[in-house]
Amino acid sequence: MSMASKSMLNAQALARSRLSYRCYNHLSKIHVGLGSTPYSTKNSKVTASHQAHSLLSPCKLLSQQKATARKFSQRSLGQDNLLDVSVDSSSGVATLKMQKPPVNSFSLEFLTSLCINLDKLHSDGCRGLVIGSSLPKIFSAGLEITEMYQPDEARLREFWRTLQEFWIKLYGSQMITIAAITGHSPAGGCLVSMCCDHRVMADGKLTIGLNETLLGIVAPRWFSDTLINTVGHREAERALQLGKLYSPQEAVAVGLVDQVVPLESVAATVESTMAQWLKIPSHARHLSKLQLRQPTLDRLLHTRQEDIDNFVSFITKESIQKSLGMYLAALKQRSKAK
Ligand SMILES: CCCCC/C=C\C/C=C\CC/C=C/CC(=O)SCCNC(=O)CCNC(=O)[C@H](O)C(C)(C)COP(=O)(O)OP(=O)(O)OC[C@H]1O[C@@H](n2cnc3c(N)ncnc32)[C@H](O)[C@@H]1OP(=O)(O)O
User: Fold this and answer.
1) Is 8 a member of any domain?
2) Is ipTM > 0.90 here?
3) Which domain holds residue 302?
4) C-alpha pair distances (Å), 246 with each of 3, 272, 289
5) Positions in the chain whose pLDDT score sits under 70
6) What residue ranges are annotated as transmembrane (predicted)?
7) N or C: which end of the chain has fewer CB within 10 A?
């Protein structure tokens, strides 16, 4: 699709959009709440009135996110249930499974839904969060490349702002966060898992890493900061330049993931790790996390607009668009050849 026709479609979508945030929120299968509020769990049933309650209850949203949801909700209407979220009533631990076939790539709508759900879980008082995937062999393929290829600029800006928002929320989250990496986790997928406090990866023919340079693009500073904080400066230096995708065994050896276990043991390992973390006084644990992560968070928080401008100016360069186009074509070709 040409840039002009993509812009026109986006303009039409914006003009048509009459949907409220409440409609948007129906996209996610979420019924959460703690204490006296009803919620859906593996252990408890959800009644119709419970569902109505959770769908109607107001969420704490930044005004930016509300605007995003209103602006672009039309496009996301065809995609149901991007996330499967449940809360265990006894432990207060939420499980959020990404289910956006084929590869859980982060589009604007998906990122918005993730932000909304993080806010909701936090405001409902969840103590822990497990992030996983419902798709076999895929954690997440990272950013939706078509968001960056021949983009509409307004949408591109919103896309990046929402990614920043998601990273800020997750990296500094008060909840104990554990990534259950049961599939490939390149680029943005790796970033999301690195935002978590602990990573459990399935063994097998899977890869994880920041491979941006293989696409001809550069991981922004906050991606590389996150990697440096995870694996150390020297390893990050090599990995970022080479666009290194690690096998699970390589990833555990450099500390990119904390545990590698057989696929069938991932859930139990995550559960027992979470149980251990839950024993630590929450306030002290979160403050300790922030002591280490706040400087990294601040770096982006103080330069958000500049970061968006840099991203837009970089990604819309003709040479970068050409690289992205070639990478996308190669992906499609490989997929067709299977
Ligand atoms: C000095 C100046 C500095 C300035 C810096 C400023 C700003 C920074 C600028 C830019 C940074 C932007 C950051 C980007 C981070 C990213 O996340 S980019 C995305 C990177 N992701 C990848 O490279 C993963 C690509 N995908 C794969 O390798 C494989 O799909 C997989 C994940 C390993 C799964 O393999 P599998 O065999 O199961 O599936 P297929 O390959 O067959 O794919 C199925 C289907 O999905 C499509 N697809 C795959 N990944 C993506 C994607 N990320 N986005 C969109 N579409 C994707 C694939 O094309 C197939 O489609 P189909 O052919 O239509 O079936």
Assistant:
1) no
2) yes
3) 83-337
4) 35, 25, 26
5) 1-80
6) none
7) C
